[in-house]
Amino acid sequence: MVELKEYMQILRKRIWIIVAFVAVACIGAGVKNYFFTVPVYEANAKLIVNQAYNAEGFPNLDIGSIQTNIKVINSYIEIIKSPAILDKVAATYPDLGMSGSQLGQNIQVTTAKESQVMSLTATGLSSEKAAKTVNAVAKVFKSQIPAIMKVDNVTILSEAKPMDSSRPINVNPSLNILVSFFVGLLLAIGFVFLLEYLDDTLKTEDELEKELGIPALAVVSRIKKEDARISKQTTSQKQVGDGQYATVNQ
Amino acid sequence: MPRLTNDKGSLVTMANPKSSSSEAYRKLRTNILFSSIDSQIQTIMIASALSGEGKTTTIGNLAVAYAQEGKKVLLMDTDLRKPAVHRMFNVPNHVGLTSVLSSQYKVTEVLRETGVEGLHVLSSGPIPPNPSEMIGSRKMTALLEDLKEKYDVILFDTPPVLAVTDALIISSLCDGVILVVSAGKVKKDLVKKAKSHLEHVNARILGAVLNNVQVPKGRNANYGENA
């Protein structure tokens, strides 16, 4: 516990360094978040891959066909991101203002394991645009897949709505500032301990006795200016100091 | 009445006996007494590894603290290279220790009153070309024997231990050595080196004074001060 106290003392001694580090980190993070970050929005649409009816017109829900659908999703992921689909999207929706390859950078396709649901995610500079992009890709993909795969088994489960993604995904000032706070704090503590480690001057009574084996007879603090100035009271007395006290040596 | 101030503004025991710093010097005085139970300590020198650690301030205040206790005190400036005691007590320094050692004056002619009862100062005198030899001379030893009979306590201000050999010569004339260490200023190695130099000449190190300690705010309240 003594060591812990020593650590606390080391930290307290240079508390201003720590405060400065943390303040700079937090202010930096705040400024970055509020002034220099372009907000990016995200929209999400879901597609389900399932051939509802087989050739005979019966519901097709046996394990075998479900497994087939799951397997086929991996191909679909590649197909969505291929120029075959994305160039078509760019051509069909010129108001998106993006080429096929640009679309490819803004679209992610994910699927939960062992699931027939595919999730399409698009990012954009506004929630409307992100939603429009993702819906466009979903629609084009759904309309193109029968031509590509000769099977019509993709259904749009849910379309993206601009409302769902009204908050930008990359701007979260409170979280970022919190992270900066802790990172700043850690760096500052590290820095303070480094300074302490590099400082090999004698500073305390304990160090004096530990390092030199000499007892400290007295510890004199920096003499304050007001102490060194002569007060009227003391100069008027011929003998100053001990005259007023009872001393051991009497 | 001599002016009770000084260039350095650091004779706090004289200016403000109730301050915490003055209390620290009184504590130093008491602890020196306790650090030698069996032998009497009459001659004390102050040493430090480097210059500017507060030797003169410490010895000056300690001298005043002794005088305030009612002792007959002599403060000698044996720093013949960069003397400072005369400035601290505002006494002239055109004659002093070197004048006595070179047989130009008698010691009684160069001893100065300080305005503190019982405290006399022997300033360094003109700076000689051979300070170490002067301090190591037989004349110096004889002078000291003479002065020991007149004063209860004799205190020596000295040059830094690591700079010149003078302090080591003086230490052999003294009953005890007090090492001043300026907190946060001097590296441990240098203090250790100074200590080993002193030990090498069999000086008796009574202890150390940790100087210029920065006291955290709020812990400096003067106990017993009724202001």
Kindly describe this structure.
The complex is a heterodimer of chains A (250) and B (227). Chain A has 250 residues and is α+β, with helices and mostly antiparallel strands. Chain A contains ten helices and five strands; from the N terminus they run ααβαααββαβααβαα. Chain A has a four-stranded antiparallel sheet. Chain B is an alpha/beta fold. A seven-stranded mixed sheet of chain B has the order 3-4-2-5-1-6-7, with helices on both faces. In chain B, strand 3 and strand 4 form a beta hairpin. The model of chain B is unreliable at 1-8 (pLDDT under 50).
Observed structural traits:
heterodimer; A: 250 residues; alpha+beta; 4-stranded antiparallel sheet; 10 helices; 53% helix; B: 227 residues; alpha/beta; 7-stranded mixed sheet; globular; disordered N terminus
Instruction: Note the gap between the termini of chain B.
Output: 27 Å
Query: Could you spell the SSE succession of chain A in H and E letters?
Result: HHEHHHEEHEHHEHH
Q: Oligomerization state of this entry?
A: heterodimer
Instruction: Count every beta strand of chain B, where a strand is a DSSP E run of 2 or more residues.
Output: 7
Number of helices of chain B: 10
Average pLDDT value of chain A?
79
Tell me the β content of chain A.
Answer: 5-15%
Please tell me what the overall shape of chain B is.
Answer: globular
Summarize the structure.
Chain A has 250 residues and is an alpha+beta fold. In chain A, 53% of the residues lie in helices and 13% in strands.
